[in-house]
Amino acid sequence: MKWERLLSRGRFGEKPGFIPTQAARSEFEVDYDRIIFSAPFRNLQDKTQVFPLPEQAFVHTRLTHSLEVSSVGRSLGKAAGEFLLEKYPSLSQSGISASEIGGIVAAAALTHDIGNPPFGHAGEEAISDFFKFHPAGLSWQKHLRPEQWIDLCQFEGNAQGFRMLVSKQYGLKLTYATLAAFTKYPRPSQIAHRDIARRSQKKFGFFINQLADFEQMTDFLGIEKSSDECWLRHPLAFLVEAADDICYSIIDLEDGCTMGLVSFEETVKLLQPILGEKFDAKKLENRTQSQNLGALRALAIGALIQQTVEAFAQYEESMCKGNFDKALTDVIPAAKALQAITDLSVQKIYRSKLVLEKEAAGFQVLEGLLEVFGQALYHKFYAPTRFSGQDKSILRLLPEDFPLKGWGEEVNPYPLLRALIDYISGMTDKYALNLYRRVKGISFPGV
To answer: Where is the HD/PDEase domain (predicted)?
Structure first.
């Protein structure tokens, strides 16, 4: 893969021959602005990061997490860009700057969680489980092709994110470079063989009905295939992934300490190997715990950025050839320290009673919403003798632009179900909870 092509300014959704405007903002800054003003991004302000429906204002949501990942991504991308421009002078001649490369990573990192449903990873599992186990979900299987059914039974936030970014509904028309840097898992849900040694095949990155969109992007950028069914990652996707890994490792630990789930002493002990010589115990004196946590977090993130950029420089050629396919944070000097943080976070934060109780409630909420809406749609189009007055009332709650025409026994309902999942996965935590209460008769509007 060639960097000149990988960094193209061409836009998804624009006609062939599109010429980017020469304005004060680069095309990748335009990407960033379009994302940050979009409705899907705005909804992240009330979506779970780790702690569902947090009462503490300090604790991170998907929105604050995404902004922080984007900030780290910009630093990683700009530093990596300086390395690339020095190594490949032809990039400068084509008008590419280090800031633009930083802009690609920043924009892609800003969107990295945009496809996540309410209630975090529990929400992903709840949507998948509805189709795998719930009678109202299983009823759709006989109407779908096998590859479509697999998509529905394996809801994946990364694939949902790609779907949203290329959707005409939001009109983002991002650059191909930003879309590719966003895509950590360049493969469909169903493949004959998954190479577990390749990080990029751990999950999938697009649904089956977005295959043509994905191929359009890879063809434009010259991204090659690693097998008949899978593609190589865009090299900048490794930096987007690293920005996320750095932020959730360090900041989830900080949140856990703030919530009282991890002691301050234990937090310092975990961060100390990352800081190395930069750690000075005397500077922790005469300051509040919050101030110390902020200072330690900043130093740790700075150290991890430096190590990650050095690893990128070391493996850049192998990335372009498709030989390197690991997380950059797994090959840096601080890898063991990050793993220790992850192990403790799983034990004391991600599996804390507070998190598990609210995740369990999230399962009920999403299953309940999918049940009432999915069953009403099924009755209307595929079992009309059972289409009740309650079903009619439920369907009136769907958005005005929901595709409610043209379906029936002879029509494949996969796009209909994708639209339903778009609607429910796009909800905020609180909106999903309140709607669930209303449709189940637990609460009434205005009461």
So the answer is: 58-258
